[in-house]
Amino acid sequence: MHASPDPQGTIGALKFTQIDKQGFEDRAYRLHYNESQSRADAFANAGAAVGLAAAALLLPRGSPPLSYGLAAAGGSAVGTALGVAAHVASRPPEHRTPNKALHELVRSD
C-alpha cells in the first residue's frame, strides 16, 4: 500500500524553504517570547525528565548496555509526548487560539 503525501505538509515545507534569514529570525523571536510556546516547552522538558527517570527505574538490572540507551531515549520521547499532551489538555483559555500558520496554508479557491 502506498501512502500519498499530505498536501498541507508539502505546502508548509515549500513555504518554509522560501523564507529568508530575516523571516527565520522573526519567527524565532516570536516563538521565544510566546507564552504558550514557553509553557509547552516547560511541559515537554518536565515530561522528558520524568520519562527518563521512569525508564531508569523500571529497566531490570543486568540488562545489556544497549538497553540503557534505548530505554533512556524511549522514556524521554514518551515523556515528552505526554508532557505536550498535558500542556494541550490543560492550557488556559487565552492560549486556545487557532494556529495562524495553518490558516495561511488553507487554499482559498
UniProtKB/TrEMBL annotation:
<protein>
    <recommendedName>
        <fullName>Glycine zipper domain-containing protein</fullName>
    </recommendedName>
</protein>
<feature type="transmembrane region" description="Helical">
    <location>
        <begin position="66"/>
        <end position="89"/>
    </location>
</feature>
<feature type="compositionally biased region" description="Basic and acidic residues">
    <location>
        <begin position="92"/>
        <end position="109"/>
    </location>
</feature>
<keyword id="KW-0472">Membrane</keyword>
<keyword id="KW-1133">Transmembrane helix</keyword>
<feature type="transmembrane region" description="Helical">
    <location>
        <begin position="42"/>
        <end position="60"/>
    </location>
</feature>
<keyword id="KW-0812">Transmembrane</keyword>
<feature type="region of interest" description="Disordered">
    <location>
        <begin position="89"/>
        <end position="109"/>
    </location>
</feature>
